[in-house]
Amino acid sequence: MTRSREPRFSPLPHTRPPSDTGLTPEIAELVAEVHADTAAETQIQMDDPVAPKVEEAPAPETRSTADELRYRLKQQSLLARFGEVALRERDRQALLDAACEVCADGLETPLSKVLIHNEARDRLVLVAGVGWSGEVEGRASLGVELDSPAGYAFQTGKPLISNHLDIEDRFRTPKLLADHGVRRAINVLIRPELDGEPWGVLEVDSPDEGQFDARDALFLDAFAAVVGAAIARQQTEQRLLAAIEHQALLTREVSHRVKNSLSLVSSLLSMQARGAASDDVRAALATAGSRIQAISQVHDQLWRGADVQTVILSDFLCQLCAAIDTGSDRHVITCEASDAPLGADIAIPLGLIVNELVTNAIKYAYGPDGGDIAVTGRIADGRLTVTVADQGKGFDLIAARSDRSLGMRVIDSLVRQIGGTIVNQAPHAGKDAGEGEGVGAILVVEASAT
């Protein structure tokens, strides 16, 4: 069934028809022009060489000059207002429904419809309309032959006016129109600008006696042009969205493959480390493997997430800590972080930084018995703060930099890469106040989260 909801466009308010006297010279000239055109025999005045086909009206126009002026101004207002909506509307069905409502209002008819060409069936299918009884949308269809008004407009691209379908001998009246007692109709082609191919037909129908004229056809043709432009815009947006989704899918696939490749490299290094004869070589290979695994964790989050440009801080950071904890039996690594997005270009260096800091705490903070290492991450006001804390022997950041150890050089380089800072906050009381223990370390990394 066609829609019976409230129209989106309220009709213009009715005002008392202006008299032909007391007008400004500009308005008087416009009124004279309208009066001369309506008094003359209906002619087609179009710059486009493809002009509407108009039959002679069964009766002369009875609309007064004042009513004619108000009628045309109303059409122009409705067309302008619909153009604003068409530029914003993203839903095609809503766009076509609004077009039917406004066209019927502008031509003061109870019936209008949009017909879309179905290539598989080679028929024009009614997809939107107002005033039609029964379940017609998506079901009713018309042929594309030249002997039907809609088919003629679709095949030739010419706007078609028929003011007396009940006695028409050039076209057959479709059953849908006959069942609703339609006597006159205008059909114009909808041709989106994107590919220029015929797309459908915009039609208004009326069961009342009277006439549509060339200006009505021009109004409806302009309306169809706006609809076509809006459809082309929607098609362009849909293609762009499809391209973006495809690109995101490719990016996720790449991240997945990178993650698998890095995991394979990390496993190979671990295997080689276990077979190494030297403790130094074994430690170096294990450290390299853990760094590669840290990068792998970021790519694992990227391909799994909905946004291929960001990772969720809590997921990424805590999974990294869990992976490190699995390989350290004597330590307990805890993690607490915000459920906030973090850019991938920040996450990869951050993962390496945290991996270095936690691994350093595992190696040097405690004795043989091990201990706790707490990692926290926060994002607030666009700032990222990550803390790695232990209660071990303490850590001298200045001394570590002076020693020029590889781990500290890696950390400083990565911190500079993300435009951040790293500090060792004031030590706190540890497990026991015994010699060489109980001072602990709280290393804090701060950087922009974007």
UniProtKB/TrEMBL annotation:
GO terms for molecular function: ATP binding; protein histidine kinase activity. The keyword Repeat does not apply. Residues 49-61 have a biased composition (Low complexity). InterPro entries: GAF, GAF-like_dom_sf, HATPase_C_sf, HATPase_dom, Sig_transdc_His_kin_sub2_dim/P, Sig_transdc_His_kinase_HWE. Residues 345-449 form the Histidine kinase/HSP90-like ATPase domain. Pfam families: GAF_2, HATPase_c_2, HisKA_2. It comes from the Bacteria. This is histidine kinase.
